Amino acid sequence: MARPLRIGNCSGFYGDRFSAMREMLEGGELDVLTGDYLAELTMLLLWRTQAKDPTRGYAASFIRQLEDCLGLAWERGVKIVANAGGLNPAGCAAAVREIATKLGLRVNVAYIEGDDLLPRKDELGRAGLELPPSTITANAYLGGWGIGTALEGGAQVVITGRVTDAALVIGPAAWWHGWAREDYDALAGALVTGHVLECGAQATGGNYPYFTEVPGIEHLGFPLAEISSDGSAVITKHDGTGGLVDVGTVTAQLLYEIAGPHYLNPDVTADFRTISLTEDGPDRVRISGVRGLEPPETTKVCINTLGGFRNSMTFLLTGLDIEAKADLVRRQLAPVLDGIETVDWHLARTDRDDPEDNEQAVARLTVSVKDSDAKKIGRPFSSAAVEIALASYPGATMTSPPGEATPYGVYQPAYIPNARVEHRVVTQNDERIEVFAEAGAPTPPPPAPVAPAASYDGGATWRMPLGAIAGARSGDKGGNANLGVWVRTDATYQWLASFLDVAMFQQLLPETAAYKVERYELPNLRALNFVVEGLLGEGVASSTRQDPQAKGLGEWLRARHVDVPTALLEHENQ
């Protein structure tokens, strides 16, 4: 088709705003509406629901949204593409067809299968991919060609399991414009656009460091894109909706949960160093210039295993002698903690000197435990914590009653050769169409370390929070955390690139000092990206950090005080 594809998003995670699907369908013209419901943690949550009911294992909220909106989408000719199938895309597709029947509609529903590797455990083991004995889910990240094939076959609703987030956009764009497998630049443009859309309102001002600049932030509109035949795109939103689309909001989302500048996908590898962002009018940002390379030789697999059981108790410590009070609790609980596999103590000094109210006087001491034996860290542990309430430090109190241990999962990535991937479209008529993966090419090596930029000679400095002059966005990739930092002017980027090296990063965020930190420069975005390897341990489901997904890591960095050249402040205010 000659005109651009208008493709929107109505969900960035399982639990996103329920009304977003109707808002996007009623808000303006769309050709395709996508929904992203899956994450590493979500696969564990869906496993729990499927363990209770084998017919489930998909995003139930998506089905409820379609009960309300399928008729509206059908009337408007909008195709729905969603990864809500989770661990059971066939069951999700059946539920969609049931809704269509109840509404008296003839809706062509297709689904994608092949990502679930557990039924092939023995076969893959013989081929060298050994799944751990405690594996509960193992899903390959499929690409977008299956989605494109389903749409080419007339599907009006396409349900997938574990595909890459950006595949929800790559597939429809490739179908709409008739791209070939080798149209790498166009595909890379769609990959970048998909990465912007995948987290919903994060592209329109959600979780934005300069949130006070976002109009209508109380109820943000969701993003959409106009994707042209060359892969360039305009990110925007429906007229009259809350939020902001500018270079800053798009940059923030581009830096979210990435690693090096080569962004890998089963369909194409995009070079983030080639992205160009330009304002294209109010609430319109054009993405262009993206260069694409062959996809990698292997496909990533999300493996979740049962890690054991966990429990925790939190004590409130008030007033004076906080450290001594915490030490007393540790000594009192030592006998019950002896022999437990993992014990983690965390004292959060949220108290203040000379507190003016009770909240300012309180610190929080949390003890988190993990063990393969649920009984050991259930009531014996939590009840022991409660039992010292009248025989411990002055003012002793806890935030919860005693409770049982709960299971937790461990995420680990794996990779299989593309030739081992099964990728099939199941049509409305139960025909199965094989989608073959490309052989791929070796992953481009990481860029050579950049020589330190020349020091920015800005003369006098002013000590202030880094966030007064820089934005940041952070998140998780399994056990790793990423933190992207960007600025608004070339002069400020020159200073940032010379100032914020790995040593300074670790000095500002001391918790990262014990971990390997990789630093990548993206001058086209006036941005730096840092990857902290292992900060989140075995992933969000297992982590005992207060911020297990590193969502606040960027805001912590922005709160740190640094010496900023006063000359840069003049550039910022021009």
Structure keywords:
6-stranded antiparallel beta sheet; alpha+beta; globular; 574 residues
General form: globular
Radius of gyration: 25 Å
Determine the structural class based on helices, strands and strand pairing: alpha+beta
Strand order of the largest sheet: 11-12-8-7-1-2-3-6-4-19-20
This entry's quaternary arrangement is single chain
Biggest sheet statistics? 11 strands, mixed
* Low-confidence sequence ranges: none
Distance between the termini: 43 Å
Helical content band: 25-40%
The number of strands is 26
Strand portion, in percent? Answer: 25-35%
Average pLDDT level: 95
What is the tally of helical segments? Answer: 15
Description:
The protein is an alpha+beta fold and 574 residues long. 27% of the residues lie in helices and 26% in strands. The chain has an 11-stranded mixed β-sheet with strand order 11-12-8-7-1-2-3-6-4-19-20, sandwiched between helices. Strands 5, 14, 15, 16, 17 and 18 form a 6-stranded antiparallel β-sheet that branches. Strands 22-23-25-24 form a 4-stranded antiparallel β-sheet, sandwiched between helices. A hairpin with a 5-residue loop joins strand 11 (276-279) and strand 12 (285-288). Helix 1 packs parallel to helix 3. The chain is globular and about 70 Å long.
